[in-house]
Amino acid sequence: MSNVSGSALGRFRSLLAPGKAASSASQKPLTGSELEQAVLLLRDYEASGLGWFWSSDNEGRITYISDCIAERLGCERSALIGQPIQALFVLDRDEDDTVERTLPLILSARKTFSDIQVRAAAEDREIWWSISGRPQLQADGTFLGYRGNGTDITATRQSQKDASRLAQYDSLTGLANRHRMGKRLSATLTAYQAAKRACAVMMMDLDRFKAVNDTLGHPAGDELLKQVAQRLQRVISDKNCEIGRLGGDEFQIMLPDIDDRGRLGEIAKTIITMISQPYQIEGSRCVIGASVGIAIAPYDGINSEELVRSADLALYAAKGGGRGQFRFYSSDLHSEAERRRQIEEDLRDALGSGQMRVAYQPIVDTKSNKVVAMEAFSRWEHPELGDVPPSVFIPIAEEANLIGPLGDWILKQACAEAANWPGGVRVAVNVSAAQFANTGLPSLVAQALAHAELPPERLELELTESIFLGDEAATSEMFNQLKLLGVRLALDDFGTGYSSLSYLQHAPFDKIKIDKSFIRGVTEEGNRNAAIIASIVSLAKALKMETTAEGIEAHDELEAMRKLGVSQIQGYIYASPTTAELVDEALASGEWVIEPEGPSRYRQDRRTVLRKVGLIHEDHRYEVTMRNLSRSGCMVEGLMDVPEGTQFVVDFGEGQLAVAVVRRSAGTMQGLEFEQQLVDDGAGGLCTRHRVSPYVLAQAGMPLQALPSGSYPMQLMQQPGTPISLPKFGQVDPGKPRAKVA
Ligand code: C2E
Ligand code: MG
Ligand code: MG
Q1: Does 577 sit in the ligand 1 pocket, CB within 6 Å?
Q2: Residue 495 pLDDT > 80
Q3: Same domain assignment for residues 95 and 201
Q4: Are residues 642 and 541 in the same domain?
Q5: CATH number where 676 lies
Q6: Which ligand is nearest the CA of 377, by number?
Q7: Mean of the pLDDT values across residues 638-647?
Q8: Which atom of ligand 1 is nearest to the CA of 432?
Q9: Rounded to whole angstroms, what are the CA distances from 187 to 192, 250, 300, 303, 311?
Q10: Domain tally for the chain?
Q11: Judgement on whether residues 486 and 380 belong to the same structural domain of the protein
Q12: pLDDT for residue 9
């Protein structure tokens, strides 16, 4: 009964409600039998449920109402007679329906109205009517009341609502769709610009989602996306935020009124951790990861296109920097993206043109300091970019389907070189999940061994947990095949992402490699890593597996690993990865024993850097060289005779300013302490929580735009017309850089 312009109603409309026909009919009174006919037709019509009638007196009280209305409202008709007509409706309830709120105004102005949508005052369910009314006037113009009709439009409204829901939400996950996110973000940013408020946007992309889709099938992929959506909703519970799925495995989150990068970084980390926990999909277990890019308005973009582009670029950089990371937008990501594209392009020729080589790092027996194995790493000497680290090019190679030939080359090269080593020293080769998923891997391994004449027990394949993703049967078949060849298997990077001891019981590993992130802080008081490593070691012993601790740099860490019973150590404290020639030399005597050498304690916080920063004092900005940086302070060089206690504003560029006090001062070197600690920038560096707001810059006369690169705070500091003081400090050229650029 959604369409109410049927002929029966048309007739009654002209009889009883608005329109010229009604007035001409009222001028010609009906005869007795016509009246009787009219009443019968009216009753039939009311009984048909197609519509209803009402009338009111000159004070707006109901004088007639069709039976069906009383029925729908769950009361007697007599109870409605005498009530104000408004009592039938709920007014002011639906925020986006402004029409219904105008009804009382129309009624009190005694105007004609038609097809106004109102919500019925029914408590137990939602009923919507469209109502019309026409004032009844005496010949002298005296108002007598209203007569009108109505129809039930609940079904129409519901289907309209469904359609608009469908147009705004993703039917799979129930999250907002691309269309809605775009509209909301534009509307929010426009309103926020006027109110000078900030708004952050996160773009999230799932790592390895394609593998789940490919191995477990699309229905499983869909189920996974639903679970991802639920987890996101758990992390982002603030009602002002909105989460959307833009398509595929791409998600977007709008976070109004947050511009604190410390807080945003924490949120991103929580999201990544939550998404990286395992999923149970149709009886299979699977693990995926997530990367997050973050941009904040007005700093990184003023309108939604600009902001989303910035967040996208940050996401691209996060994915490029290895998986499971977040990244804030910064203007130098543009050149980074360009570099990544270049790397992908050049990677195709790198193998053929001899730019790749293999570096080896000793793995040392904890008790005897004797080298027992060498881990092979790929090294790429790019003709223009110099050394490109594997953490950068391996993920690109995986994505660009180049890991096959690259992995095969390293395997062959490592086996051939290892075959020359005396004394049974093993070689360990990293195998990425993409290689493991290739059913041809066992025969490639067999060929490499045969070609080099290397006994299989001297080859160890290092696998990461990501191989457990997807098809369990295929994974266990691959394990069988590799074990049949007689090679050893190691679980690499244990302790990163999701680490489950349950893998260890089912997979035929000979060794567990405990990741360096697990080792950092192990000697600090209250750190629980020691207890966890102890339990990994005892489980490994029970399962007859060896353990290797990775990334040991300091004596305190080495001591801790010895106490915990870890069987082997790999790290700078023994040796960094080195060339095949040096390995040959060192092993020439048949045995290689290394004395550990390194700092007594691991110092995580201070990073050696070398870059120019600005120091602002009174009306002056001095260029100095920053030599090291930690969360709480930095060491700078370049000013003479600065008294302790002097306050500076450190200008890191791109609107990043930090208030700092000189705590130590010697000659041209000053140790500064920040008033507010720096936070992680997601790329292994540090950044300020807040930046100079483009709104503030706009007030100072700059155009309102996302933060330009470079430095500009002096424009803010100097009041036009005020005299400029003399510089307090003499500036010196710190000369040639003494530290290496980190
Ligand atoms: P990984 O297999 O866990 O290798 C350990 C990484 O830690 C290596 O970095 C190594 O140089 C570094 N490292 C060793 N000792 C220390 C230390 O004491 N302190 C610190 N901070 N780092 C230490 P690298 O060579 O940059 O390789 C990074 C990752 O790239 C490797 O992690 C591995 O997952 C991957 N990779 C490297 N070469 C290959 C390859 O040929 N194939 C595949 N599939 N992956 C590779
Ligand atoms: Mg490894
Ligand atoms: Mg590792």
Answers
A1: yes
A2: no
A3: no
A4: no
A5: 2.40.10
A6: 1
A7: 94
A8: 44
A9: 8, 22, 17, 10, 18
A10: 4
A11: yes
A12: 43
